[in-house]
């Protein structure tokens, strides 16, 4: 039974756990790569494997688990998910955790905004303004400017990852069983994950790197996504979108604490522009969908 929407304040504890889990993916991935405990392909492959194991376990615990899992096996969803996980991991070879999260978050929102345009939805003016402000913040952040510009390769890989996650999210809109679809997608994504690992020559992973990858896959991805899907029916969609605005900020704090990353003025201004623009966009009044 789906519960009626509740305020974010009533659900604050579980909201905090979920948002920290989402943010932890960036910190864990960057931590494993910086320390040399793993290569990006090995981390991504193990993250997918452990995430699939956790999500399949959760699906199988419920009624009709095998049938649900079978309906969730969708190659197009798995391809988008694999693009996200692999791009994410390779991007963090050169990007700081906070910078990567900001690029990821901003491009995801732009991708989903583009999806709304392609679906011929009526978009309120305030949403256009918010999307434009967020896009300007990202462009300004990524423009070359001496040593403050982010590494081009890392920014490009994170952009690809964000498009993958945005497409995966758009594909899952209105899904009757999002947990099963996510479990099926992780399961199929094992194939491209292992293929990239083999192609890169098994870039190596030690015990500590494996522990970080499993934590990212099984706990902060698998359990994090499961909790998020359980929470969504209980809050308004606009509140859910605004809550996610805190993720890049949490990542930046985590990066400063665990990775000694610095907060530059350029990154701070870009963060305010992107998060402010997205907040403006997601809190604008909904408009009726245009029929085509």
From TrEMBL:
<feature type="transmembrane region" description="Helical">
    <location>
        <begin position="265"/>
        <end position="283"/>
    </location>
</feature>
<feature type="transmembrane region" description="Helical">
    <location>
        <begin position="39"/>
        <end position="60"/>
    </location>
</feature>
<dbReference type="InterPro" id="IPR037185">
    <property type="entry name" value="EmrE-like"/>
</dbReference>
<dbReference type="Pfam" id="PF00892">
    <property type="entry name" value="EamA"/>
</dbReference>
<dbReference type="InterPro" id="IPR050638">
    <property type="entry name" value="AA-Vitamin_Transporters"/>
</dbReference>
<protein>
    <submittedName>
        <fullName>DMT family transporter</fullName>
    </submittedName>
</protein>
<feature type="domain" description="EamA">
    <location>
        <begin position="154"/>
        <end position="282"/>
    </location>
</feature>
<dbReference type="InterPro" id="IPR000620">
    <property type="entry name" value="EamA_dom"/>
</dbReference>
<feature type="transmembrane region" description="Helical">
    <location>
        <begin position="205"/>
        <end position="227"/>
    </location>
</feature>
<feature type="transmembrane region" description="Helical">
    <location>
        <begin position="239"/>
        <end position="259"/>
    </location>
</feature>
<keyword id="KW-0472">Membrane</keyword>
<feature type="transmembrane region" description="Helical">
    <location>
        <begin position="72"/>
        <end position="93"/>
    </location>
</feature>
<keyword id="KW-1133">Transmembrane helix</keyword>
<keyword id="KW-0812">Transmembrane</keyword>
<feature type="transmembrane region" description="Helical">
    <location>
        <begin position="149"/>
        <end position="168"/>
    </location>
</feature>
<dbReference type="GO" id="GO:0016020">
    <property type="term" value="C:membrane"/>
</dbReference>
<feature type="transmembrane region" description="Helical">
    <location>
        <begin position="180"/>
        <end position="199"/>
    </location>
</feature>
<feature type="transmembrane region" description="Helical">
    <location>
        <begin position="126"/>
        <end position="143"/>
    </location>
</feature>
<feature type="transmembrane region" description="Helical">
    <location>
        <begin position="99"/>
        <end position="119"/>
    </location>
</feature>
């Amino acid at each position: 039974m789906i519960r009626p929407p509740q305020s974010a304040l009533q659900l604050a504890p579980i909201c905090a756990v979920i948002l920290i889990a989402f943010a932890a993916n960036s910190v864990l991935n960057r931590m494993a790569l910086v320390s040399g405990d793993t290569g990006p392909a090995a981390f991504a492959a193990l993250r997918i494997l452990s995430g699939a194991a956790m999500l399949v376990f959760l699906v199988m615990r419920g009624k009709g688990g095998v049938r649900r899992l079978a309906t969730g096996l969708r190659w197009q969803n798995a391809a988008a998910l694999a693009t996200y996980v692999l791009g994410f991991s390779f991007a963090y070879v050169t990007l700081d955790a906070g910078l990567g999260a900001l690029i990821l978050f901003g491009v995801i929102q732009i991708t989903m905004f583009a999806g709304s345009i392609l679906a011929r939805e009526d978009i309120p003016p305030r949403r256009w303004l918010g999307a434009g402000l967020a896009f300007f913040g990202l462009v300004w952040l990524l423009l070359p400017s001496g040593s403050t510009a982010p590494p081009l390769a890392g920014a490009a890989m994170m952009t690809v990852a964000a498009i993958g996650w945005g497409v995966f999210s758009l594909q899952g809109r209105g899904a009757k069983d999002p947990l099963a679809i996510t479990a099926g997608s992780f399961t199929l994504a094992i194939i491209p994950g292992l293929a990239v690992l083999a192609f890169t020559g098994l870039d190596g992973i030690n015990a500590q790197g494996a522990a970080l990858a499993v934590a990212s896959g099984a706990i902060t991805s698998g359990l994090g996504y499961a909790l998020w899907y359980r929470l969504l029916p209980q809050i308004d969609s606009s509140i859910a979108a605004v809550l996610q605005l805190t993720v890049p900020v949490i990542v930046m704090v985590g990066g400063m604490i665990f990775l000694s990353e610095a907060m530059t003025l350029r990154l701070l201004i870009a963060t305010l522009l992107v998060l402010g623009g997205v907040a403006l966009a997601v809190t604008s009044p909904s408009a009726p969908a245009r029929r085509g």
